[in-house]
Design brief:
The structure holds two protein chains of two kinds.
Chain A lengths: L3 E4 L2 E4 L4 E8 L5 E7 L6 E7 L2 E5 L6 E7 L2 E7 L7 E8 L9 E2 L3 E5 L1
Parallel strand pairs in A: 2-11
Antiparallel strand pairs in A: 1-3, 3-8, 4-5, 4-9, 5-6, 7-8, 9-10, 9-11
Chain B lengths: L4 E3 L2 E5 L4 E6 L7 E6 L6 E6 L5 E4 L2 E5 L5 E6 L8 E7 L2 E2 L2 E2 L2 E2 L3 E6 L1
Parallel strand pairs in B: 2-13
Antiparallel strand pairs in B: 1-3, 3-8, 4-5, 4-9, 6-7, 7-8, 9-12, 9-13, 10-11
Classes of the chains: A mainly beta, B mainly beta.
């Protein structure tokens, strides 16, 4: 069992759909992350929130829209995705955004774009 | 250019063999993490190394941080099928006043019974 919970576990959507991925942690962590991961590749950083403010956006297309409603929740809103966006989307958290802080990952949402 | 050069990229071995995975960089880090990711799951932290020359053991896994804090290695003794997974080294270098989580390319390990 992981301490970072992601829902849904699987999502299939068409290119015109709008959906959201959700992530929740109750460890009191103040840094939260979204990653995209393709098979047998390392996670690619998308966004980082620090104290509920967007700290890092790694030039992600605007069809991905992050939101951090409070210190425990992180959402990723999806709209007009492309087939190449099919991947595992991982959420992670750490105590704070600092060099020595390890991340705690959820088990991801497996996203398929039709 | 990858900040963290991880090798080998793929490794397929028989149960009982030993192996070493390397994570190298030209930069100095204050700390480095190793994660293992099993199929269908997120990465799980194995260890954080912070002191140059440090050696940490986790059962059959031995982690080393280079004296200059530019490189690290993971050695597995007598590998078992349960060790199968993607091994990732990671760090958070400072960039533009923030810390950017950065991963190596990963080592995909398969241990055959």
């Amino acid at each position: 069992d992981t301490e970072v919970t992601q829902t849904p576990k699987h999502l299939v959507m068409g290119m015109t759909n709008k959906k959201s991925l959700k992530c929740e942690q109750h460890m009191g962590h103040r840094a939260m992350y979204w990653y995209k991961q393709k098979a047998k590749k390392p996670p690619e950083l998308m966004f980082v929130y620090s104290y509920e403010k967007l700290s890092i956006n790694e030039s992600v297309p605007s069809r991905f829209s992050p939101e951090c409603p409070n210190s425990s929740l992180l959402n990723l809103h999806l709209h007009a995705l492309q087939p190449e966006d099919s991947a595992l989307y991982l959420c992670a958290s750490s105590q704070v955004l600092r060099e020595d802080q390890p991340q705690h990952f959820g088990d991801g949402t497996r996203l398929s774009i039709l | 250019t990858q900040l963290l050069e991880q090798s080998p990229q793929f490794l397929s071995i028989q149960e009982g063999e030993n192996l070493t995975v390397y994570c190298n960089s030209s930069s100095v880090f204050s700390s480095l993490q190793w994660y293992r990711q099993e199929p269908g799951e997120g990465p799980v932290l194995l260890v954080t190394v912070v002191t140059g020359g440090e050696v940490k053991k986790l059962k059959r896994l031995t982690f080393q941080f280079g004296d200059a804090r530019k490189d690290s290695s993971l050695h597995i003794t007598a590998a078992q099928p349960g060790d199968t997974g993607l091994y990732l080294c990671a760090t958070h270098p400072e960039a533009g006043g923030s810390y950017i989580p950065t991963f190596g390319r990963g080592t995909s390990l398969i241990v055959h019974p």
